[in-house]
């Protein structure tokens, strides 16, 4: 898969020679609904013998017109994760457009002419039923009008789970309320993220539960504070683990939020390793314990729950 970064003013003369089948969308999460769009485009590309391209953007469009804080500015899938998943879906080219004020200020007709036709040589454009590519007049029902027979348009219907639309917003809400099973169902894979193992306060080994402390990208949206069953990939190996994401309240108020994972049947020095964490099940909320002994007793119990989880999968 080739990633081609496009800036509105720098790449004015960009032109792709081969006609393309293009799936268009922001695709945060690359959830089951997004996968339906991309798989539809993939099938058409195969039937026509053309490459499959995805048009996506480097950040949320809202960033151009409002101040964003907290989880609002974070992503279910950051750049690397999104690209990784797109590659696995069989995408040949990604046009990664810098979403700037000047890019968004184009009229829908200009976007279609400048981008879909002139730059990207669209043969077919596929997107979800609610996709917009500019202002309120830029919906999928009007795309054939702007296309004016220069490319075909395919509108993909909503993917429903439990009678509700699969959407990034629904996934974000479930992440924020710790409903990781629902998150994973909507994504069509376990929610995962990446990071690097750094030093903590060396308390873990004294508690009898050493933890890898994971430093992750600030733009990565994480599950809500709590204790979770996870799988952790270090090098090429997967390990079972119990994760704590929280402020380690037992050790004082207002600590920063950290991600720490005790790995089962593991005893190695792994500082500096890159890891991937797959989130599988929420065990409980964080507790501010009155003493270390109570925290240890609770972690003994968490370990039992974690082992049971893996016995039953
Ligand atoms: C499975 C698990 C559950 C935890 N639950 C809590 C908790 O409920 N309350 C809390 O204050 N800390 C909790 N912790 C965090 C420990 O306080 C933390 O791992 C310990 O302070 C080690 O810190 P260090 O890595 O900086 O040495 C938990 C840790 C793990 C691995
Ligand atoms: N079962 C285990 N789970 C997690 N880390 C382990 C385990 N066994 C050994 N380690 C090592 O111990 C380190 C964590 O020890 P800990 O006392 O929690 O110190 P710190 O929090 O300062 O890193 C890990 O980074 C890892 O290198």
From TrEMBL:
Leading EC class: transferase
Entry keyword set: ATP-binding, FAD, Flavoprotein, FMN, Kinase, Multifunctional enzyme, Nucleotide-binding, Nucleotidyltransferase, Transferase
GO molecular function: FMN adenylyltransferase activity; riboflavin kinase activity
Pfam families reported for this sequence: FAD_syn (PF06574), Flavokinase (PF01687)
EC number(s) stated in the UniProt entry for this protein: 2.7.1.26, 2.7.7.2
Domain named Riboflavin kinase: residues: 186-311
Protein name, UniProt field: Riboflavin biosynthesis protein
Cited SMART domains: Flavokinase
Pathway noted in the entry: Cofactor biosynthesis; FAD biosynthesis; FAD from FMN: step 1/1; Cofactor biosynthesis; FMN biosynthesis; FMN from riboflavin (ATP route): step 1/1
Superkingdom to which the source organism belongs: Bacteria
Family: Belongs to the ribF family.
Reactions it catalyzes: riboflavin + ATP = FMN + ADP + H(+); FMN + ATP + H(+) = FAD + diphosphate
Organism: Apilactobacillus xinyiensis
InterPro entries: Cyt_trans-like (IPR004821), FAD_synthase (IPR015864), Riboflavin_kinase (IPR023468), Riboflavin_kinase_bac (IPR002606), Riboflavin_kinase_bac/euk (IPR015865), Riboflavin_kinase_dom_sf (IPR023465), Rossmann-like_a/b/a_fold (IPR014729)
């Amino acid at each position: 898969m080739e990633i081609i970064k496009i800036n509105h003013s720098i790449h004015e003369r960009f032109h792709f020679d081969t006609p393309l089948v293009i799936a268009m969308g922001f695709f945060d999460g690359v959830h089951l609904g997004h996968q339906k769009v991309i798989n539809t485009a993939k099938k058409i590309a195969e039937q026509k013998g053309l490459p499959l391209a995805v048009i996506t953007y480097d950040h949320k469009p809202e960033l151009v017109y409002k101040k964003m804080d907290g989880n609002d500015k974070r992503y279910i899938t950051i750049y690397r994760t999104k690209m990784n998943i797109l590659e696995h879906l069989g995408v040949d080219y990604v046009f990664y457009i810098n979403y700037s004020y000047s890019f968004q200020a184009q009229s829908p007709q200009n976007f279609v002419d400048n981008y879909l036709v002139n730059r990207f040589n669209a043969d077919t454009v596929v997107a979800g039923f609610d996709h917009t590519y500019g202002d309120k007049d830029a919906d999928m029902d009007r795309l054939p009008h702007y296309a004016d027979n220069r490319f075909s348009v395919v509108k993909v219907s909503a993917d429903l789970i439990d009678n509700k639309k699969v959407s990034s917003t629904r996934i974000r809400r479930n992440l924020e309320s710790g409903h990781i099973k629902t998150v994973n169902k909507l994504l069509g894979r376990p929610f995962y993220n990446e990071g690097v193992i750094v030093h903590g306060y060396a308390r873990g080994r004294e508690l009898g539960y050493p933890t890898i402390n994971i430093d992750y990208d600030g733009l990565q949206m994480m599950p809500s504070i709590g204790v979770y069953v996870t799988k952790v990939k270090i090098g090429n190996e997967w390990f079972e683990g119990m994760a704590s994401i929280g402020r380690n309240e037992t050790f004082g108020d207002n600590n920063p939020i950290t991600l720490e994972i005790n790995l089962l049947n593991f005893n190695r020095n792994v500082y500096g390793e890159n890891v991937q964490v797959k989130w599988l099940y929420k065990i409980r909320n964080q507790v501010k314990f009155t003493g270390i002994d109570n925290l240890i007793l609770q972690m003994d119990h968490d370990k039992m729950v974690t082992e049971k989880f893996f016995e039953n999968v």
